[in-house]
Amino acid sequence: MKRHLLIWLCLGGLGGCHAATAPGVLDLASPAATPQLTLDHVQRIGAAEQAGDRVAQQRYAFQPATHPQLVLTPARGSWDWSSQGELRLRVQNAMPWAVTLRVEIDGAVPAQRLQAIVGVPAGPAQTLVIPLQATSPRVQGMQAGPPMPFDDHGQPVLVAATVEGRLDLHKVGAIRLEVPAPQAVQTLLFGRVETAPGTAALHQAYAGIVDRYGQFTRAGWPEKIATDAALRAAVKAAPAEPPPSGRDVWGGRLDVQGLNRTGWFHTQKLDGRWQLVSPDGHAFFSLGVNAVAADGGRSYVEGREFMFHDLPPDSGAWAAFYGRSDSRRPEQAASAGIGDNHGRWFDFQAANLYRVDGNHWLAAWRSRTLDRLQAWGFNTLGDWSDAALGQAHRLPYTRSINIAGDYANVASGYDYWGRMPDPFDPRFVQATERAVLKASADVRDDPWLLGYFADNELAWAGSGAQGRWGLALGTLAGDAHSPAKQAFIATLKKEYVAPETLATAWGIALTSWDALNVTGFHAPAPDEAHPAIARDYSAWLRRYADTYFRTVAEAIRRHDPHHLFLGGRFAVNTPEAVAACARYCDVVSFNIYADLPQHGFDATAMQSLDKPVLISEFHFGSDDRGPFGKGVVSVANEAQRGTAYARFLAAAESDPQIVGAHWFQYTDQPVTGRLLDGENSHIGLVGITDIPFGGFVGAVRAANRQSQKQPLQ
What are the pLDDT digits (tens) for 392-414? Predict the structure, then answer.
């Protein structure tokens, strides 16, 4: 289904009409002829129509096919857009649902192309703007960009927030408009296409998006406030219910008999079910919240002041809420491509707390937060929480052992938070000793401490189909002086004796051990023809993980024999790493981002390892309360967050291996992104104003209380 139309209205020079660098207009509702329009599995419907604003548009039906597309090409040569910054396209979606539109701008050289994918919402006609350079919300300093379209002086404008690729704007060869693989006919109306200098629309999409309270300015929701008085009234509203009864002082259940009383939190298996046990000997299912802290509202303002409306002055009382730092971490994939990632920041959360309680805002926040958490049915302060909350001895708490130092490291290919620590380096052992000593110094004799986590979301595996072997491949590719590499080579020498024997087993050319001991050695990926590769890699992964977890566990036991080792908060893992964790830790912790806990870890493997599981992070997010991101696991709206929470928690408590679940996190992330990596999702129990999300909190409270009434299976 291909045909050609010439539909060009030249007002300048989008190609071969007049001045080659002047802006031009191309009208898809006009039959004027100059550039060529090719319809590939697209049908032009009827004559030109007039939209509500009396602008001419033409209806096009994209047929079910792999790549139905509308292609605009110059009548001859190429277009010169070297003085232009945006492509603007008049578009209207005729369907009652959003339609995905792929816009590609081809260069004269085949390898050069800009591409943007946008969801065109149902409704009135709007202007779609494609920046003529690669960009993304990450470039603007945040993980997710503001919702589109936005109102620009009464006109809906849909800016492609993410554009990928590169293009020599001196030679532009085509514009492609595609609806990717529709299953049924999708109808869109197009009007004129034009280029414009500068990036005004992109700038305007982000301009003034945050108000003085840290709230998104272009939307409303029940908890949004407009005045200091409204803020104070909403924050100071008392918890709806008192803490649940029928619990011991630690939050443990009184209805389970037969557990040991040791004076410390511990684990015990009773009638086929693993339990956390409170110091008084009662079953303790850990319902926790992560990042219960008052400093999560910090977001960079330097370099993007235009995004913020009515920021307080950086003097007087407000100066305390400004600061300077540098979050640039080139070794972390989490921070890759994040712009505006250093300099001056403003703490919206703390400033709001000051508006509520004045100079004593921190103490007031701590007391109020503990009241809330207990009233909402939580019994644990999860990782990354304010240490002073734990020291209040109202809720059991956890501690992080953050191991840092100048020890060697290994790339696994994932490396989201950085490369793996090399546990074979003596400097790692020393760093672990220091970290454990620091973490345990003031809590080793505190019965309110549930236990310790070590590090967070280490890169135990790589990415892709061969990701399980990433740490083995990375070890052999490492520096010739890497302690881990030397340990791996020593293991291979002991196993194979001669390099030729290893070469035969792995199906590679290797005439000497020196050939293996070079920086950048390209080790083979496992395959069916050479089973020894997977066997050797698996043995190495076991040894690597054993060395890491044994080193940490021994340091904990030396400095604190009373408290639990809660594992390493797995995000990615291998069977070898999980087995090593189970061997040396009291509890294996997983950060699980899935609809149900059993979809985030290998439950069968954990049953065979016979060790309790703690879900150290989970959440469900939506984008209808301000922040643009919807979290790692998203749902359609705020009401569904509560439904998803209740379903997840019920599934966790019904599993005899699982001993707790910790929500991530207490407060929403800043609209313009947190300092660390620009994350900006609505995943909190409370907003950045410290106002609880009433409907969600009500669902959480009901689920928490219901879970504590269920018989332990």
Answer: 999 999 999 999 999 999 999 98
